[in-house]
Amino acid sequence: MSFEELGNAFWQWLEKNGSTLSDGIKFHDYRDSEGAGRGVIATRDLQEDEVLFTIPRPLLLSSQTSRLRQEKDMAEILDKMSGWNPLILCLMYESQRSDSFWKPYFDVLPKDFSTPMFWDKQELNALEGTDIVEKIGKEEAEAMFFQEIQPILKDHPEIFNSDVHNVDLFHQCGSLIMSYSFHDEKATPKMTQKNDDNGNDDGEDGENEDEDQEEGLLAMVPMADMLNHKTGYNNARLFHEPNCLRMKAIKFIKAGDQIYNTYGDLCNADLLRKYGFADENNSFDLVEINGGQVVELCCDDTDASLRDRKIEFLMEEEALDDCFVIDTEYILPPELISTLHVLRASAEEFEKMESKQKLPKPKLTPTIAKLGMQILEERLKRYPQEDDNQTLMQTKCNRNKRHALLVRIGEKKILEETINKLKKEAEGQKRSAEGGQDNKDHINKKKKKN
Ligand SMILES: C[S@@+](CC[C@H](N)C(=O)[O-])C[C@H]1O[C@@H](n2cnc3c(N)ncnc32)[C@H](O)[C@@H]1O
């Protein structure tokens, strides 16, 4: 079946099973124009609050609705599993069954993904300098497959086939959850899985703290996941109602416009890591500054025991963390400024802070601004010394490299703009200090004359 025929079959399946689909929307092929696969387009003007579609809850694919639950022992096994694992197992099972209720849905879901987890070494090189590389977590995910999923598959050869239900299928299903799943907020309490014992839903790559702290039942929501995302263009939202999930326009949408859901206020690094694309201009971009490196840079001449006391104090006062975040406001976060004051304080000054158990005020003095600049300049050195904008314009630049460059360009811009702002601020302070001194000299001269 062609791309269009698969879309039509899925549309008919939705209607046949109780979904309502507005006559003002249809699927659209955004593969060539935007490299964004299938999306949804407005076929006429749509008003704010207009319902675009509704999906009855039984159409959601979760560990509660999958037929895997009816297989011997499986309900108990699924209920004991945590994080993404129950849904991964259900997707591995359902996606390979030609008689699955969700077959027309699986037929429109991708089998290949453009997230960095599937990039080759050369493509990964394009991410040099960004924080994505350490967060991909492919090895951790595989370790989890071999420890937790594979034993279940092996114990149940009557349900699973090790040639089919293998680690590749596991990655495919994990990636689907990463980029297509929702937390159904209004699932009944019985249906709602709490996060796992250690309070952290591991996710496939063990790095999905933000989305996984959400409560509700992790589920695939056919149709709601056909909407693309573009930062700043969000015009539709999914509402979780008692009997169904309802997608509504949240503003007027012109005929011919694409309908965009929001995947969250995500920086390009997170968009790329979770969804396999980055936006041209992303106002949610940010840069992480490693806390350990800040300490290293500021304390290279500090006595080790004093340095350790400072670290302990800063952590107790919740100023020093694994990383500090700088966003598109281009300012040093107050916790970083206070941390720099503490790290640069003399032993006597620090003792006073310690005895008062109080962090210094986050005042940006010229010394701290200079130190801030040094830290950001060090961070900038992590990126390859290339003109990323120039490379981006080259026609040969492949898709993955393009998206990696968008991440790098966004992060470098934040660092450069913040350095410029700090420079201006330090110069301004120096000038006003000199101005203040001039005024004092002038007054003194006048006094002497009189
Ligand atoms: C929830 S699905 C949306 C439907 C998807 N386009 C499809 O064809 O099945 C999320 C995936 O859509 C693609 N996508 C969404 N927004 C995009 C964008 N602005 N640019 C490129 N790809 C996008 C990415 O592959 C992402 O992982």
Summarize the structure.
With 450 residues, the protein is an alpha+beta fold. The protein has helices spanning 3-16, 31-34, 74-80, 85-95, 103-106, 121-125, 132-135, 138-155, 167-180, 209-212, 268-275, 291-298, 304-316, 334-344, 347-356, 366-380, 388-393, 399-449; strands spanning 20-21, 25-29, 38-42, 51-56, 181-184, 217-220, 236-240, 244-249, 286-290, 323-327.
Write a structural description.
- InterPro entries: N-lys_methylase_SETD6, Rubisco_LSMT_subst-bd, Rubisco_LSMT_subst-bd_sf, SET_dom, SET_dom_sf, SETD3_SETD6_MTase, SETD6_SET.
- This is Ribosomal lysine N-methyltransferase 4.
- Belongs to the class V-like SAM-binding methyltransferase superfamily. Histone-lysine methyltransferase family. SETD6 subfamily.
- It is an enzyme of class 2 (transferase).
- Its main location: nucleus.
- The protein is α+β, with helices and mostly antiparallel strands.
- It folds into two domains: about 5-275, set domain protein methyltransferase, domain 1; about 285-435, set domain protein methyltransferase, domain 2 (Alpha-Beta Complex).
- Helix content is about 45%, strand content about 10%.
- It has helices spanning about 5-15, 30-35, 75-80, 85-95, 105, 120-125, 130-135, 140-155, 165-180, 210, 270-275, 290-300, 305-315, 335-345, 345-355, 365-380, 390-395, 400-450, and strands at about 20, 25-30, 40, 50-55, 180-185, 215-220, 235-240, 245-250, 285-290, 325.
- Strands 1-4-8-7 form a four-stranded antiparallel sheet, with no helix packed on it. It has a two-stranded antiparallel ribbon with strand order 2-3. The chain has a two-stranded antiparallel ribbon with strand order 5-6.
- Helix 4 (about 85-95) packs across helix 9 (about 165-180) and helix 16 packs antiparallel against helix 18 (about 400-450).
- The protein is elongated.
- The N and C termini lie far apart (about 100 Å).
- Mean pLDDT is about 90; it is low at about 195-210.
- S-adenosylmethionine binds near residues 225, 275 and 276.
